Amino acid sequence: VQVAEESTFRAAGAVPVCSGDQVIGVLSFFSDIRQELEPALGVLLTGVAGVIGAFLAQRRAEVLALHLAAATDEYIALVGHELRTPLTSVGAYVDLIAESPDDTPIGEVRELLEVVQRNNARLRDLVEKLLDLAALESGHLPLAIEAVDLPAVVGAEAVRWAWLVL
Fold it and tell me: Among 54, 7, 15, which residue's Cα sits nearest to residue 34?
C-alpha cells in the first residue's frame, strides 16, 4: 500500500502463482491509467498465473528427479562395490578349498572356511540393511526418531559406519 501511495501508478493488481496449495510467487502488474478490473482480465491473469505455477512445479520436479537419479546411481555404485569385495573373497577362498588336495590338513581348510564364513556374514548384513532401507522407503517400516550419542558412534574404532535400526 505504501509503495502504491508513493508511485505515479493509478491501478495495480496481483495474482498469486501457486504450486499445489503453496504460493510460490506473485504476478503483479501496474498501470498509469486509473481503471477498474475487468472480469475477463482477472480470469486471464489467473489462468496465466496457473500456467506459470504448473510450469515451475514441473521444472522443480524435473530437477528433483535428476538429483534423485544421480543419488540412486551413486548409491548403486556404492552397494555394488560393498557387495563385490566380500563376494570376490568368498569366491577365491571357495576355489582354494576346492583346489586343495585331499590330504590338506584340516586346520588349513578350517582357516579358509572361517574367511568364507566371515565374508558370508558381511554379505548377509549388507543385504539385511538394504532390505531395511527398502522397507523404510516403502513405508512398511515405521520411523522412530530418537537421540543418538554421535561422539560415541563416530569415536568407536570398530564401527565402520553407523546404521540405526529403526
Answer: 7
Would you call 76 exposed, middle or buried from its count of C-beta atoms within 10 A (0-12, 13-18, 19+)? exposed
Distance CA 33, CA 37 (A): 12
Q: Is 89 left (phi over 0), alpha (psi -120 to 50) or beta?
A: alpha
Tell me if residue 28 falls in helix, strand or coil.
Answer: strand
Give the distance, in angstroms, between the CA of residue 26 and the centroid of all CA atoms in the same chain.
30
pLDDT digit string (tens) for 31-82? 788 888 788 888 888 889 889 999 999 999 999 989 988 887 788 778 877 8
DSSP 144: -
| Strand residue runs (E) in the chain | 11-19, 22-31
What does the alpha-carbon distance between residue 104 and residue 76 come to, in Å, rounded to a whole number?
Answer: 40
> What one-character DSSP code corresponds to residue 9?
-
What does DSSP assign to residue 33? S
CB 16 within 8 A of CB 26: yes
